[in-house]
């Protein structure tokens, strides 16, 4: 039985258990003098019995589906000739692909007759596994249902018990956040460790040459590629720096103007427009940067006599990225400026300061922690932004300080290394995970620092 | 004495003067500061106008396409097929021949190999397949002839839209003088027309710009968002309820909260790495499938949904909780029967905004292989598919001029969906906003 029809059957069984459980609670209530002598409402008895049926069955189904492939592969693997068992990585993947295709009947003739016993074993195991899964899952569900059904008594605290189950489910849902973080950490850390076995950590962090393309022939000199990530870090910082140079002053001034000067009518027009700017997908910014901004900048700089402007300059990507984070900076700054107490402003005005003097000498210092944390969050966004740089910045890793040349960034390299077909144990693919680890670590640090700054200085004026 | 007084007065005057001057400078500074503010806002707005302007100006033409009226004679001899049910014969059928003979009849004056090639390039290079499908659907047409409109090549389309400068020397154009003269004669007879580009909305991706459409990407986006919604809404709401109403003040709760806040700021591409390493390499889910995309986007949008749902729950006044508890409801009943329905509009608003983010997201989907060229329209969440923003990314890379317009057109559709979702969120907020 396929997973989806099995799942459907499970739902039907659970629904039936609910109905029967509810009915039984009403029946047992008759013997003690009516429904009002039950501990809980009949629905709760039904729901609790249904939970008894559903939870074990679903857990078994999930576990079985998760592990059946691994277990089957391991037992089929031992049937392969020694020579194949010694294979590694992509070669072995090819063998597996062939065996699976043979089993599904997509291809009929094996390249090596030694595969046939494995294919047959695979076929048998898969049939057994599917049947076993169907029978066991259904049996467990029914057993659970019967157990839950038999437990129903007038004095059973069905509502409290069912509410405990629901609360556990709620807790499980909120644990997903932790699981996600753990998943991210594990997926990048494990692959990164494999990468650092191939390429030393110091070479990765301090090397100045990045060329991950690996020659097809292993004997060719330099076939291992070069994995010095300094050019990527420099490129990332340059583009993010340009973006912040645009976004921080503009975003800050926008927020100041909206909070301190603008009439509420102007605010009500400008704010939604800024939200539109924030809501435009990054791929659209990337398209604009690559097809409109970059040629215009190239034309402009060549017009004033600067030559050698790349059509994939860091400047174009940085400028557009800066515009993209303006709303982010301005809304964060808006919040912190609004949070500065009225009394500080009044005090400053009372001493005869103008509005701009108040802003510069009173509000900015008071809001500084918030602004700093906003800038840090903006920096973390700029570093992690992918689509704009993938589309508008280059692929070649130049170590340069000239913003008119093409540079590449960490995110561009992650994207290009992992798009398309890949073998999963080459240094090239693993490098992407090492870069991902760096990216995750740096953005996490920026966030932690930003939150710490806010927390430390927040209560100063309350 | 008077001298001293005079001196003091003079000093005061000088000071006053200085102060006046100083005041002028300070007011000027004030004005300048204000102008910086206005300039900042204008810069942002100007950029927004420029961005939308470029895209709408460039994309509008992708909603129109050109067609040429041709008399097609389904001659069995030309096609080389006598029996339309015979698979073997169909394999060798010459569908292209239908078009070239029909073009030859329309322009008998064209001769010479190169001229004929230019003439045949008037119609889309894959228009013959729509003829084949048409004939296979109506087998009785074999041997008859009919007048139909055939999709023109994208270069011809560009001429019709006035995007080709005829004064440029022939060698620098992608279209020849002969083709221009043929177009002119067609135009004079009214046998070439521009019409609304339905292909753009009904076809999947294609290498030929005139045959490429966004339907595949739209359906892919739909399945991806469906999976995202089905997972992230219940999980997000459940997590928010737990954290707001049930969570005890302990270490675990603190860790969960810190995690949610940090996840909201993790770069989206890192979620792509997670999807690749966990969903594809460990769980062996199919590559390029909307279901994996939906899983990744779920993890990405969960923080948004949890945070906004929590603030929706917080906004429900405690008096409602106390009233429910006072009437004997259990805590769970109080939450499920009273707090949750009252917080639902706020939660839905947050969810829609999260979905809008997910709809525009590209980077993590590149990691899990949703970036492949897929011409078929996906039939379910397990089929290989791509999504709208990824389609934009794919097309923006192609060299043909027509694809630039297509890209802008796809962006317009994407922005349209985003606008609808955000307006819906604003409407919900306005309609159900309650001040207690």
From TrEMBL, chain A:
InterPro entries: MetI-like (IPR000515), MetI-like_sf (IPR035906), Phosphate_PstC (IPR011864), PstC_N (IPR022182). GO terms for cellular component: plasma membrane. It is a multi-pass membrane protein. Residues 233-450 form the ABC transmembrane type-1 domain. It holds the Pfam family DUF3708. It is found in: Cell inner membrane; Cell membrane. GO terms for biological process: phosphate ion transport. The chain crosses the membrane at residues 6-23, 44-67, 131-149, 169-190, 232-261, 273-294, 314-333, 362-383, 430-454. Its main location: membrane. It comes from the Bacteria. Keywords: Cell inner membrane, Cell membrane, Membrane, Phosphate transport, Transmembrane, Transmembrane helix, Transport. One of its GO terms (molecular function) is phosphate transmembrane transporter activity. Part of the binding-protein-dependent transport system for phosphate; probably responsible for the translocation of the substrate across the membrane. Belongs to the binding-protein-dependent transport system permease family. CysTW subfamily. PANTHER family: PHOSPHATE TRANSPORT SYSTEM PERMEASE, PHOSPHATE TRANSPORT SYSTEM PERMEASE PROTEIN. This is Phosphate transport system permease protein. It comes from Reinekea marinisedimentorum.
UniProtKB/TrEMBL annotation, chain B:
Keywords: Cell membrane, Membrane, Transmembrane, Transmembrane helix, Transport. It is a multi-pass membrane protein. GO terms for molecular function: phosphate transmembrane transporter activity. The keyword Cell membrane applies. The keyword tRNA-binding does not apply. It comes from the Bacteria. InterPro entries: DUF3333, MetI-like, MetI-like_sf, Phosphate_PstA. The chain crosses the membrane at residues 33-60, 222-243, 263-283, 290-309, 335-356, 402-428. CDD domains: TM_PBP2. GO terms for biological process: phosphate ion transmembrane transport. GO terms for cellular component: plasma membrane. Pfam families: BPD_transp_1 (PF00528), DUF3333 (PF11812). It is found in: Cell inner membrane; Cell membrane. Its main location: membrane. Residues 218-424 form the ABC transmembrane type-1 domain. PANTHER family: PHOSPHATE TRANSPORT SYSTEM PERMEASE PROTEIN PSTA (PTHR43470:SF5), PHOSPHATE TRANSPORT SYSTEM PERMEASE PROTEIN PSTA-RELATED (PTHR43470). Belongs to the binding-protein-dependent transport system permease family. CysTW subfamily. This is Phosphate transport system permease protein PstA.
């Amino acid at each position: 039985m396929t997973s989806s029809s099995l799942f459907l059957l499970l739902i039907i069984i659970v629904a039936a258990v609910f109905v029967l459980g509810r009915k039984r609670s009403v029946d047992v209530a008759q013997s003690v003098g009516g429904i009002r002598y039950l501990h809980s409402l009949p629905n709760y008895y039904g729901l609790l019995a249904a939970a008894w049926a559903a939870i074990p069955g679903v857990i078994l189904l999930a576990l079985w589906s998760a592990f059946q492939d691994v277990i089957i592969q391991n037992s089929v693997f031992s049937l392969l000739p020694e020579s194949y068992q010694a294979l590694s990585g992509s070669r072995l993947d090819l063998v597996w692909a062939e065996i699976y295709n043979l089993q599904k009947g997509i291809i009929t003739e094996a390249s090596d007759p030694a595969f046939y016993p494995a294919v047959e074993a695979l076929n048998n195991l898969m049939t057994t596994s599917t049947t076993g899964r169907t029978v066991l899952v259904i049996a467990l569900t029914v057993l659970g249902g019967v157990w839950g059904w038999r437990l129903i008594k007038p004095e059973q605290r069905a509502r409290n018990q069912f509410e405990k189950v629901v609360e556990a489910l709620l807790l499980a849902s909120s644990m997903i956040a932790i699981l996600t973080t753990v998943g991210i950490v594990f997926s990048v850390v494990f692959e990164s460790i494999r990468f650092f076995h191939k390429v030393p950590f110091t070479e990765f962090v301090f090397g100045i040459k990045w060329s991950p393309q690996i020659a097809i022939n292993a004997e060719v000199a330099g076939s291992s590629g070069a994995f010095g990530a300094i050019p990527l870090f420099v490129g990332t910082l340059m583009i993010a720096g340009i973006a912040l140079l645009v976004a921080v002053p503009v975003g800050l001034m926008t927020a100041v103007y909206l909070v301190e000067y603008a009439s509420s009518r102007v605010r009500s027009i400008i704010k939604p427009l800024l939200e539109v700017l924030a809501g435009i997908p990054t791929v659209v910014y990337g398209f604009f940067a690559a097809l409109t901004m970059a040629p215009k900048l190239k034309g402009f700089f060549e017009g004033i006599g600067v030559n050698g402007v790349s059509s994939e300059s860091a400047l174009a990507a940085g400028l557009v990225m800066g515009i993209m984070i303006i709303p982010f900076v301005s809304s964060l700054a808006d919040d912190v400026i609004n949070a500065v107490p009225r009394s500080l402003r009044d005090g400053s005005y009372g001493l005869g300061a103008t509005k701009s003097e108040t802003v510069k000498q009173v509000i900015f210092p008071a809001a500084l922690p918030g602004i700093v944390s906003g800038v840090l969050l903006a920096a973390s966004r700029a570093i992690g932004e992918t689509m704009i740089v993938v589309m508008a910045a280059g692929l070649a890793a130049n170590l340069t300080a000239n913003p008119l040349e093409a540079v590449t960034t960490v995110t561009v390299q992650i994207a290009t290394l992992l798009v398309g077909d890949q073998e999963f144990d080459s240094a090239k693919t693993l490098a992407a995970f090492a870069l991902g680890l760096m990216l995750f670590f740096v953005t996490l640090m920026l966030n932690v620092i930003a939150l710490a700054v806010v927390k430390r200085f927040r209560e100063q004026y309350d | 004495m008077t001298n001293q007084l005079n001196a003091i007065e003079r000093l005061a005057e000088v000071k006053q003067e200085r102060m006046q001057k100083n005041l002028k400078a300070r007011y000027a500074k004030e004005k300048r500061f204000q102008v910086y503010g206005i300039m900042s806002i204008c810069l942002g707005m100007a950029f927004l106008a420029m961005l939308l302007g470029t895209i709408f100006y460039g994309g509008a033409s992708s909603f129109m396409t050109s067609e040429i009226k041709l008399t097609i004679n389904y001659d069995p001899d030309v096609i080389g097929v006598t029996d339309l049910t015979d698979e073997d014969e169909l394999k060798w059928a010459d569908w292209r021949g239908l078009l070239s003979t029909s073009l030859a009849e329309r322009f008998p004056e064209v001769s010479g190999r190169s001229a004929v090639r230019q003439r045949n390039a008037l119609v889309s290079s894959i228009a013959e397949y729509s003829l084949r499908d048409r004939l296979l659907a109506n087998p009785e047409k074999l041997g008859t002839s009919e007048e139909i409109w055939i999709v023109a090549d994208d270069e011809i389309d560009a001429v019709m839209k006035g995007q080709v400068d005829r004064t440029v020397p022939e060698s620098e154009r992608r279209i020849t003088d002969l083709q221009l003269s043929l177009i002119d004669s067609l135009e004079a007879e009214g046998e070439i027309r521009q019409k609304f580009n339905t292909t753009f909305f009904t076809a999947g991706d294609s290498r030929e710009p005139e045959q490429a459409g966004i339907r595949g990407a739209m359906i892919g986006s739909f399945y991806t968002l469906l999976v995202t919604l089905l997972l992230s809404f219940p999980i997000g709401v459940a997590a928010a309820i737990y954290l707001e109403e049930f969570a005890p003040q302990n270490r675990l709760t603190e860790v969960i909260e810190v995690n949610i806040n940090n996840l909201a700021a993790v770069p989206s591409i890192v979620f792509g790495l997670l999807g690749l390493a966990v969903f594809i390499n460990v769980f062996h889910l199919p590559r390029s499938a909307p279901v994996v995309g939906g899983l990744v986007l779920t993890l990405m949008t969960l923080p948004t949904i949890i945070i906004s749902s929590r603030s929706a729950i917080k906004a429900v006044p405690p008096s409602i909780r106390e009233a429910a508890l006072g009437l004997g409801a259990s805590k769970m009943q109080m939450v499920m029967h009273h707090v949750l329905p009252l917080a639902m509009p706020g939660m839905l608003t947050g969810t829609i905004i999260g979905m809008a983010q997910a709809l525009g997201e590209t980077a993590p989907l590149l990691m899990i292989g949703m970036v492949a060229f897929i011409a078929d329209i996906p039939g379910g969440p397990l089929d290989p598919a791509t999504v709208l923003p990824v389609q934009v990314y794919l097309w923006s890379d192609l060299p043909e001029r027509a694809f630039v317009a297509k890209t802008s057109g796809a962006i317009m559709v994407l922005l349209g969906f985003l606008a609808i979702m955000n307006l819906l969120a604003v409407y919900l907020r306005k309609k159900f906003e309650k001040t207690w």
